[in-house]
Amino acid sequence: MADQRPGLSGLSIDELTAWFAAHGEPDYRARQVRTAMWKGSATSTSELTTLPRALATALNEAFRWSTVADESIVGSDGGQTEKALHRLADGATVESVLMHYPATASRRARHTLCISSQAGCAVGCPFCATGELGFTRDLETAEILDQVRSAQRRLGADERITNVVYMGMGEPLLNLDRVLESVAALNDPTGLGLGARHITVSTSGVVPGIRRLTALGPQFTLAISIHAARDALRDVLVPLNRRWPVAEVVAAARDHARATGRRVSYEVTMIGGVNDTEADATALAELLRGDLAHVNLIPMNPVAHTPWQASPMPVIERFATRLKAAGIPVTIRRNRGVEIGAACGQLAAERAGAPPAPAVARRRLRLETASARALRGQRSEEPVPAGVEG
Ligand code: SAH
Ligand code: SF4
After folding, report:
1. How far apart, in Å, are the Cα atoms of 86 and each of 115, 197, 209, 254, 280?
2. Which of 149, 147, 73, 163 is nearest to 110 (CA)?
3. Distance 363 CA to ligand 2 centre (A)
4. CA-CA distances (angstroms) from residue 74 to 94, 95, 299?
């Protein structure tokens, strides 16, 4: 049976203080344990030498030191990218990706960690390997945070994680309460202590979730996976669009930018012949003109069950030029760790095994028909994906 003890990192400092108080222990114990959890190298509660033995035993009986077991760590890009596969207590697997950016003349070295918020995802974007897996379950707060602790431990005492992005498996804002708790813990000085601007939540467009993130107050960075500015095409590429159309998503993102003073990032996965046309560039430019926004164009990583490929680089450059002409800042992103499938759930998808060939052929045909209809401007008649409610 799966280990039922809650993960220690999921407790707030107040909850941990209350637990120690109930065991007749002073407040500083909670801070001591939080420091060991986030800054130390211990891999189990029994290694906490600052705690009396009996207290460490009691703590270990009540809580798990970590809720993720690192099953494999695979490096690529000459050691610049590391992908970790984490096994959870019930056997589900999720992944995180640690990317190292060396120091330059004007900037210190950065270590950006991309984490998962759910096992699988209910949104079902067809170009995404996680979407292909379907939804398994929401992660607990501790399971989200322990991916970060695992990476910090691997980095060692001399280096700190400088950025955390919620761009791994899952739709963070469909696991809203736990994601918001985890974001607060990363920001908390007794947790990771990372500045809000260095924490990015990426969403396919869950409007009420965006509004709750904004209402938290700190200047968290918001990334919107927009992919298409026209509803008909976005209905196909991001099925959630049937519930929250693109104009509502951009309105919520605009309010976030206004409230925080922070630019919103818009991500476009560039798919050859699908969302990279002149009409798409024009529609996106019109939608974002004058906004506090920044667009990232990312060539699509190949995914086995789609008929699609990345847009050719000259097409991406033309798309970028159109956006720039409308005064919108844009960056073309190189894909990190393509060879180990660093994008969004690909390692776990590979492990799930390839579906049988006839199923892949049917899926490809359905996507070709759906995207061709969308390019003619016809809205999808498919329902909102199950598991996506308002
Ligand atoms: N569910 C959230 C966060 C996780 S996905 C979201 O969609 O924003 C993180 C990013 O990876 C998204 O921008 C997503 O569109 C992108 N992505 C998914 N599959 C991809 C692929 N095959 N190639 C390139 N980017 C991909
Ligand atoms: Fe889910 Fe994001 Fe993948 Fe879409 S791109 S299926 S929202 S994880």
Report:
1. 11, 26, 26, 35, 38
2. 163
3. 17
4. 14, 11, 22
C-alpha of residue 128 to centroid of ligand 1, in Å: 6
Record the pTM: 0.92
Q: Tell me how long the chain is.
A: 390
| Ligand 2 centroid to residue 204 C-alpha, Å | 7
Ligand 2 pocket test, candidate residues 96, 128, 175, 241, most atoms within 8 A of CB: 128
Q: Considering 25, 82, 95, 143, which one is annotated as catalytic?
A: 95
Number of separate helices (H) and strands (E) present in the chain: 13, 12
Give the H/E segment covering residue 55.
helix 53-62
Q: Where are the beta strands (DSSP E) in the chain?
A: 69-76, 81-87, 93-101, 110-114, 118-120, 135-138, 163-166, 199-203, 221-225, 264-270, 293-299, 330-332
Instruction: For residue 97, list its beta bridge partners.
Output: 83, 114
Identify which ligand lies nearest to the alpha carbon of 124.
Answer: 2
Mark whether 344 is an active-site residue: yes
Q: Residue whose CA is closest, atom 2 of ligand 2?
A: 171
194/28 Cα distance (integer angstroms): 22
Q: How far is the CA of 77 from the centre of ligand 2 (A)?
A: 24
Which ligand number lies closest to the CA of residue 115? Answer: 1
Report how far residue 277's alpha carbon sits from residue 286's, in angstroms, rounded to the nearest whole number.
Answer: 14
Q: What is the pLDDT along the chain (390 residues), one digit of tens a residue?
A: 788 899 999 999 999 999 999 999 999 999 999 999 999 889 999 999 899 999 999 999 999 999 999 999 988 878 888 989 999 999 999 999 998 988 899 988 999 999 999 999 999 999 988 888 889 999 999 999 999 999 999 998 889 999 999 999 999 999 999 999 999 999 999 889 999 999 999 999 999 999 999 999 999 999 999 999 999 999 999 999 999 999 999 999 999 999 999 999 999 999 999 999 999 999 999 999 999 999 999 999 888 778 889 999 999 999 999 999 999 999 998 765 554 444 545 555 565 566 667 777 777 778 778 777 777 777 777 777 777 765
171 within ligand 1 shell (Cβ under 6 A): yes
